[in-house]
Automatic annotation (TrEMBL):
Keywords: Cell membrane, Membrane, Transmembrane, Transmembrane helix. The keyword Lipoprotein does not apply. It is found in: Cell membrane. Its main location: membrane. Residues 186-208 are annotated as: Disordered. It comes from Kitasatospora aburaviensis. This is MFS transporter.
Length: 456
């Protein structure tokens, strides 16, 4: 656990630096161009390149040492940050340079997070993996909460230059923790078998297509794992859609003089829920029935979103935001433990990279579809004069922006149904090796409602 704590501190620093610079650069783009489209383009470039790079990243993570992959990805991201800081210092910073740096950092993240998630399997004991996953979620939650505030402080104190060099320093500190730390690698990276009579030449590797096919099979081959992937993807899409829909609902139900305060209260409630859930999972060693907890937390989050749609007032929206984000780290932490147990260590890079691609696709779809669905599909149904105005429209606790309220209700129902649909699934798991690379010939079957292994 000591090695993980050292790596965790480095990831916290780099995530915080990226959050600070991301907020400040998005603000800078909008101030320079006055264009919402160019601002949104920057947000899109933070997702799309990493999604496209995920399959290749997963194969490379499994083919090379995880520490080496993390070092190279962090170094590339730091060089991009240095180039942008130098451009700003010389007065040549342009929007296209910010876009280029965003693309590089998005691609680097496609390598960083699968490599880190796979490396945790070897550096943390099985009973501590839920706590380790929750601590990673806590670092991300802390970065999201503190990033905008620290960015505002740095922008006031030293302008954009201070923000960009802070990002560079955070990458350098993260690299330093990786240089100091030593953690186990899969056995195949140390003792790869060689053909007889050719001891000096490496064994022939499977093709990239074969390795990706195997990663996809491991990711979705079991009903329980398919259910986990479906839950986490829908949860990410619901988070994105709810985030996009909450703002118009808060504004619709609040007098103009109180709108800024209401938006701040709802946003803070969501951040506090995420922080509370993450800290609780970090302190707790993990549930004995992780799949059951995934189901319960997903249903609870869905019920919170449904309640927000039915009663879209600031107080109810704040309570719903807190509850939804409270369950988020429970789902992600328990799902991570199940994936680490069910997938062999030398294949986790591919599996975790493909999983990240699916879940990021859910986030992207949530952002892209929330607005059009609310305005063009739901609003005509329940708005004034719509076919459901006098029935379903009256159930919604607002007379304005009913389309967003209805879509929020539908999102909550979809999330709850998705969680309940796989409540009877099980996950077949390998006994976690310690360290990575020991014998895996003995399989175990782990029911959803027990952590006791039943030998096959």
């Amino acid at each position: 656990m000591t090695t993980f704590l050292l790596i965790w501190v480095g990831r916290l620093l780099t995530a915080l630096g990226s959050s600070i610079s991301g907020f400040a650069l998005g603000l800078w783009i909008y101030q320079q161009t006055g264009s919402v489209t160019q601002f949104a383009t920057g947000l899109l470039l933070g997702f799309a390149p990493g999604m496209l790079a995920a399959p290749a990243a997963g194969v490379l993570v499994d083919r090379h040492r995880r520490r080496t992959v993390l070092l190279c990805a962090d170094a590339a991201a730091m060089l991009a940050a240095v180039a942008m800081a130098a451009a700003e210092a010389t007065g040549h910073l342009a929007v296209w340079q910010v876009y280029a740096t965003t693309v590089v950092e998005s691609c680097c993240a496609a390598f960083q997070w699968p490599a880190l998630a796979a490396a945790v399997t070897g550096m943390v004991r099985p009973e501590q993996r839920g706590r380790a996953g929750a601590m990673t979620q806590t670092a991300l939650a802390g970065a999201q909460l503190l990033g905008p505030m620290l960015a505002a402080v740095l922008l006031g104190a030293g302008g954009l230059r201070a923000v960009l060099w802070t990002d560079v320093v955070s990458f350098a500190l993260g690299l330093l923790t990786l240089l100091v730390a030593r953690f186990p690698e899969p056995a195949g990276h140390r003792d790869r078998p060689r053909p007889p009579g050719r001891a000096t030449e490496p064994a022939q590797r499977p093709s990239w297509r074969a390795e990706l096919t195997e990663g996809r099979r491991l990711l979705t081959g079991q009903p329980g794992l398919r259910h986990l992937l479906r839950v986490v993807t829908v949860l990410n899409a619901a988070e994105a859609a709810a985030t996009a829909l909450l703002l118009p609902l808060v504004l619709a139900g609040t007098p103009a003089a109180d709108q800024n305060a209401a938006v701040a209260v709802v946003s803070t409630a969501g951040g506090l829920g995420l922080a509370a859930g993450s800290v609780a999972m970090s302190i707790w060693s993990g549930p004995r029935r992780p799949l059951a907890w995934v189901t319960s937390a997903t249903v609870l989050s869905g019920a919170a979103v449904l309640a927000a749609g039915l009663h879209p007032r600031p107080a109810a929206l704040s309570a719903a935001a807190f509850t939804f984000f409270l369950g988020l780290p429970v789902v992600t932490g328990c799902a991570q433990v199940l994936w680490q147990s069910a997938v062999a260590a030398e294949a986790q890079g591919r599996v975790f990279a493909l999983r990240r691609m699916f879940t990021q696709a859910g986030t992207l779809l949530g952002y892209l579809l929330a607005g059009p669905l609310a305005a063009q599909v739901c609003e005509p149904l329940v708005g004034p004069g719509g076919p459901l105005d006098s029935t379903l429209g009256r159930l919604l606790g607002t007379d304005r922006d009913r389309g967003s309220a209805l879509l929020l209700c539908c999102t909550g129902l979809l999330l709850a149904v998705t969680g309940l649909a796989g409540r009877r699934h099980t996950v077949e798991a390998l006994p976690p090796p310690e360290p990575i690379g020991c014998d895996r010939t003995a399989l175990a079957r782990i029911p959803a409602n027990s952590t006791d292994a039943e030998p096959l």
